[in-house]
Amino acid sequence: MAAKQPPPLMKKHSQTDLVSRLKTRKILGVGGEDDDGEVHRSKISQVLGNEMKFAVREPLGLRVWQLVSAVLFSGIAIMALTFPDQLYDAVFDGVQVTSKTPIRLYGGALLSISLIMWNALYTAEKVIIRWTLLTEACYFSVQFLVVTATLAETGLVSLGILLLLASRLLFVAISVYYYYQVGRKPKKV
C-alpha cells in the first residue's frame, strides 16, 4: 500500500485575512484601550509609551516671551559691547563712566545668556525651557537688587533708573509666571 501524501500546505496570508489580524492584535494586546485610555497601534508604541504625554503644553504667549527675551538680551549685549558710554548714560543719567571694561564684560555675559535664550526658543523640552525661564528670573532679580543698591549708595534718582527698576520687576513676574506654567502637571482628559 502506497503511503498517502498529505495535502499540500496552503500558506495563509495574515495581511489579507481580517480575522487572523484581529486575533493577532488581541494576543499582542494592541488596538484596544489601556488603563490610561490610550489606544496603541503597535506593541512598540505600547512598550515605549506615547511621546505626546511628554510634550509640553505651552502656555499662551510663551514663545513670544522667549523671542522678546532673546531679542532684549541680544540688543542690550550688543549695545554694551559697542557703545558702553551710551548704555551707562541711559541708565545713570548724567554720571560719567570711569571705565568701559566692566560694561563690556557685562555685555559679554549678556551675549552668552542671549545665546542660551535663542537656543531655548527652538526646543520643545520642558526642562530646558524651565531652566532658561529661571535664568531670566534670576538675572532680572539680581539686576534689580544691584541697581537698587547703587541707587541707595549714590542717591541719584532719574527717570531711566525708575523705568529700569519697574521693567525688571515686570520681567521677573512674567518669567516666574511662565516658569510655573510650564512646570504644571497637565490635566487628564
TrEMBL record:
The chain crosses the membrane at residues 62-83, 103-121, 133-152, 158-180. Signal peptide: none annotated. It is found in: Membrane. Its main location: membrane. It comes from the Eukaryota. GO terms for cellular component: membrane. Keywords: Membrane, Phosphoprotein, Transmembrane, Transmembrane helix. It is a multi-pass membrane protein. InterPro entries: TP53I11. This is Tumor protein p53-inducible protein 11. It comes from Delphinapterus leucas (Beluga whale).
